[in-house]
Design a protein that fits this description.
The protein is α+β, with helices and mostly antiparallel strands. It is built from twelve helices and nine strands. The strands form two sheets. A seven-stranded mixed β-sheet has the order 1-4-5-9-8-7-6, with helices on both faces. A two-stranded antiparallel ribbon has the order 2-3. The longest helix has 42 residues. The protein is rod-shaped. The chain binds phenylalanine. The site of phenylalanine has 11 residues, from strand 8 and strand 9.
Length: 344
């Protein structure tokens, strides 16, 4: 066969092969340039026609022409088909979507560590027959102090850095104890209640102090209630909170005007046996104060202290949450930082 015809055949074959590989419109353009452009082998052959003899030209001419139009048409058809396929895929994508497909990177909320702890504490006390009570955060001088055996001008008021309001005798409650007296007034005896709630103190904020934090009051009033009821309740609660079968507690004397006698309750460090950084190497940890409700407080709540007695305790819920979860800075708890909260 004529050498030029062989060359035309191989150009056609190369084109057919390259056409298969085209993926984008730009590649169609590039393909067109390399097979039909000025520098293409086909153009070179066409240009060389004038140097051929008449016979050869008659043989090669139509073949070259046919190759050229063949390539042009094939390119056009393939390009058209490609554009249509693309458009259809775009429409399909909008029309048909997979409703079962998993959305990547979804954000899911969960319960704040504070709320988790409150729920857990409520469950523990409810299993012992306590009811969950609450009272106002904007409190009167009477319930926050006077009724709790802290009369006007009594130095014990200094224990509480109080936020007073510009309404006379109204303050942001400094502890949850006012709910003791409020409940005595409104509830029947025997009375067993806990009061998880927000309290306010005018303090400098640091890693262990916030102007607003959570406390939980607990009290039980009935005939013949004694300190041993208080200790057993405290111990049962702590065992369940820290998930321990055995957990020793000990008591030290402590002063609060609204209890007599008053105590500080300590527990064995639930995190170690030999002393660690949490218990400051002592194996004991102070957990919360409590005591027998002072007769004056019972009286303020309309209860006869000669017939009834009761115990009360009040713990810093914020502190217990920090202990339980190993949080070292109280400011994290209200910071609202997702990086922190997502760990719980
Ligand atoms: N109300 C006390 C405080 O906030 C704690 C407490 C409650 C102490 C009940 C004894 C009994 O400091």
């Amino acid at each position: 066969m004529n050498a030029i015809l062989t060359q035309i055949e191989s150009i056609k074959q190369a084109f057919a092969q390259d056409l298969q590989k085209v993926q984008t419109l730009k590649e169609f353009d590039d393909l067109k340039v390399s097979f039909l452009g000025k520098k293409s082998s086909l153009q070179a052959l066409l240009a060389g026609m004038k140097d051929l003899g008449a016979d050869e030209r008659r043989e090669v001419g139509p073949a070259l022409q046919e190759a050229k139009t063949g390539i042009e048409q094939a390119l056009e058809v393939a390009r058209q088909a490609f554009t249509e396929r693309k458009a259809k895929a775009a429409i399909d994508k909008e029309l048909y979507f997979d409703v079962t497909a998993k959305r990547p990177g979804g954000v899911r909320g969960h319960i704040h560590p504070y709320s988790q702890a409150i729920e857990e504490i409520e469950d523990i006390f409810m299993s012992m027959g306590y009811e969950v009570l609450d009272g106002p955060e904007l409190e009167t001088d009477f319930y926050n102090f006077t009724a709790l055996n802290i009369p006007q001008d009594h130095p014990a008021r200094d224990m509480y850095d109080t936020f007073w309001t510009n309404k006379k005798s109204m303050l942001m409650r400094t502890h949850t104890s006012p709910v003791q007296v409020r409940s005595m007034e409104s509830k029947e005896l025997p009375l067993a209640g806990i009061v998880p709630g927000r309290v306010y103190r005018h303090e400098a904020v640091d890693a262990t102090h916030e102007i607003q934090f959570l406390q939980c009051e607990g009290f039980f009033i009935d005939k013949n209630v004694t300190v041993s009821h208080l200790f057993a309740t405290a111990q049962t609660f702590l065992k369940q909170l820290f998930k321990k079968d055995e957990l020793d507690i000990r008591i030290r004397p402590g002063f609060f005007p609204f209890v007599e006698p008053g105590f500080e309750i300590d527990m064995r460090c639930p995190f170690c046996s030999k002393g660690c950084s949490v218990c400051k190497k002592s194996t004991w940890m102070e957990v919360f104060p409590g005591g027998m409700i002072h007769p004056n407080v019972l009286r303020a709540g309309g209860i006869d202290p000669d017939v009834y007695s009761g115990f009360a305790f009040g713990f810093g819920l914020s502190r217990l949450v920090m202990l339980k979860y190993g949080i070292d800075d109280i400011r994290h708890l209200y910071g609202g930082k997702l990086k922190f909260l997502e760990q719980f």
